Amino acid sequence: MSLRTAVRLFSAPLRSVLQPSAAITKRPYAAVAQALSVLENELDTIRAAGTWKGERVITSMQGPHIYVDGSRGDILNFCANNYLGLSSHPEVVKAGIDALQKYGAGLSSVRFICGTQSIHKTLEEKLAQFHEREDCILYASCFDANAGLFEVLLGPDDAVLSDELNHASIIDGIRLCRAKRFRYKHMDLNDLEEKLKESQSSRLRLVVTDGVFSMDGDVAPLQGICDLAEQYGALVFIDECHATGFMGPRGRGTDELLGVMDRVHIVNSTLGKALGGAAGGYTVGPKALIELLRQRSRPYLFSNSLPPPVVGCATRAVELLMASNEIAQSMAAKTMRFRNNMTQAGFTISGSAHPICPVMLGDARLASLIADDMLKLGVYVIGFSFPVVPKGKARIRVQISAAHTDEDIDRAVDAFIQTGRKHGVIS
């Protein structure tokens, strides 16, 4: 037998072992097809329910007046978290450019390796000073700040007591910790007290609430919460994303607004809304807590440092607010102008005196149609529906900015009246 023949006879059965059969090779493709079918069915369900969330493309800076792809001319923006109009403030933009030129585009590192610059420490110091707390730690977002806090602070011998309508990031953060969980009815002090009684055997107890609830613009009853926390020996945490910079006489937040700054122990908030609107979040509180978070908080330890331009913009925004409360104080009159005029027109506006002004519609498809018609009239708003808000609670969430003029507000109200009559919401 020749060598070539021997090799051929030996390799033939070996190839049959190494090469999978046709049935086997088809399995991965079948799995992909099945997965795609499941995904497409889910997408069809969302479309059929009228809860599809499209993304409009903005072709300008963020601000009260923007340009939107597919729309002609100047569009009034009434749905941004740009509460103080600082996202495109000239001094804030310049500070970002200066930081980019001096410190570069990014650190390519987490903080504890080689990702801490002097500007990061400066911003942390200013935020601690702004909130009148001992120390501050920066995160890539407030979602990360919420994800990184509870797991570090609370163990299996502890308890967390959370408002049932807290933000999704708070809920997800609490899920990561091993503490016993108690959920109290929305802003219900009686139910909170019952949960405090139930959890009295716990080592540490933390009452957790949004300062302002973003879907309805309602403000947590912090005075009552702090009273109960002191009575039952619990700590108080608030998420201030929709309050920092413009709630309270100096814009410090709901704890300042309600006179409990010295009674709230931990505050999480964001740089991505009123404070320049770029990105980033943070925790302020006792120095020992902040130091422990630097050692153990996973989103902090395993995420890149905030980019220098973001830090520069946020630092300048905080400096502007610490120098003057004029911008923060301008919000109240503009907010009430919109709320009062809309109510007089026959609309139902949820919440109270917060710049978040939910125009309640109930039906998800109706909210989407009205938002589309508003854009045709030159006003940018977005319909909110399940799962962002409960079923049957669809609304258009209007957000007032300090940068809006009275004329802007009146134009938005007129557009709402026109579309509201078209769709039978008002007469």
From TrEMBL:
Its cofactor is pyridoxal 5'-phosphate. SUPFAM superfamilies: PLP-dependent transferases (SSF53383). Residues 74-416 form the Aminotransferase class I/classII large domain. Keywords: Acyltransferase, Pyridoxal phosphate, Transferase. Pfam families: Aminotran_1_2 (PF00155). Gene3D superfamilies: Aspartate Aminotransferase, domain 1, Type I PLP-dependent aspartate aminotransferase-like (Major domain). PANTHER family: 2-AMINO-3-KETOBUTYRATE COENZYME A LIGASE, MITOCHONDRIAL, CLASS II AMINOTRANSFERASE/8-AMINO-7-OXONONANOATE SYNTHASE. Belongs to the class-II pyridoxal-phosphate-dependent aminotransferase family. This is Aminotransferase class I/classII large domain-containing protein. It comes from Cirrhinus molitorella (mud carp).
